[in-house]
Amino acid sequence: KQFHQRSRDVQSKNLWTHEQKQQLKQLGEQENPDWESISKQLNRKTIVCKLMYEQLTDKQWNEQEENILREWWEYHDKDSKKLKFSEIQNLLPEHSLYGIQRRLLIMM
């Protein structure tokens, strides 16, 4: 009985199950994934699927990469609304845009 209650709680909060995450990883790894189709299969919004995929596949950061990110951040005007994250993404191609922004938040 507890299991069913927990299952309903997860569904009501719309949390990702382990199985859904695995399915998302498999579907996202296809060449040129069709995110609209993937989102329909998982009954989620497209942007939510993309963000979760990036979170699931984001690589670990090493000290050198963090130093590159820190130097870039300190060099640019932090108050600017025109920060070009594509610039730093070119310097750190192993990391997704989501991963870079997330790491910046963690480092602050």
TrEMBL record:
Q: Where is the Myb-like domain?
A: 8-57
The UniProt record lists the keyword Metal-binding: no
GO function terms (MF aspect)? DNA binding
Which domain of life does the protein's organism represent? Eukaryota
Its keywords, alphabetically, are: DNA-binding
Q: What is this protein called?
A: Myb-like DNA-binding domain-containing protein
The cross-references to Pfam families, in alphabetical order and at most eight, read: Myb_DNA-bind_6
Which InterPro entries does this one have?
Answer: Homeodomain-like_sf, SANT/Myb
Q: Which SUPFAM superfamilies match?
A: Homeodomain-like
